[in-house]
Amino acid sequence: MLNIALPKGRLGDQVYELLDSVGYACRDIYLDNRQLVFKNAETGVRYFLVKPSDVAIYVEHGAADVGIVGKDILLESGADVYELLDLGLGRCRVCVAGPQGYREEPERRLRVATKFVNIAKGYYASINREIEIIKLNGSIELAPILGLSDVIVDIVESGKTLQENNLQVLTEIVPISARFIANKAAYKFKESEIATMLDKLSAKIILKNN
Fold this sequence. Notes:
Structural class: alpha/beta
Oligomer: single chain
Strand content: 25-35%
Number of helices: 8
Strand order of the largest sheet: 2-3-1-4-11-5
Radius of gyration: 19 Å
């Protein structure tokens, strides 16, 4: 069995449909229950439904052989896994955003609210900017509105939420999409199975993009 960590939610649904389309179906996954593990002996796969932010952890520690995870989570966690393929799903970007008309004061330490602490630190270190990180887990847009921070570092999709809160993108840090990852040991001992899946996914993506 090839053990696959699948993120719960909308991205997970898209990824499962992609895997299904290249021969890795597991129909029980559509059952209306709270089951978290699904397997199909015929296709040789076992799916684990996990929280998106935990996918890389399951793969890194060998509970899953492969998984699908957002690039933002890979960058933030620093997980020691192989990143094999950009699936092109869930495209968005990690950005610095601030109030409309915001002007930075270079001589003052910048207050940055975010849940992506490592990404924010890495970006500002790359431009030699002194910052104070304010770690938040949700409603990041509130921070500059209420004066808790000067700017935020967060995921931006359409930008509609920013606009509705009188905020704007100031800088794009990195584009984000779903990535196919593998456990390093599994990649060695299940090389044939993983390579076959990788080839099928690659071919499907190439066909889709042409």
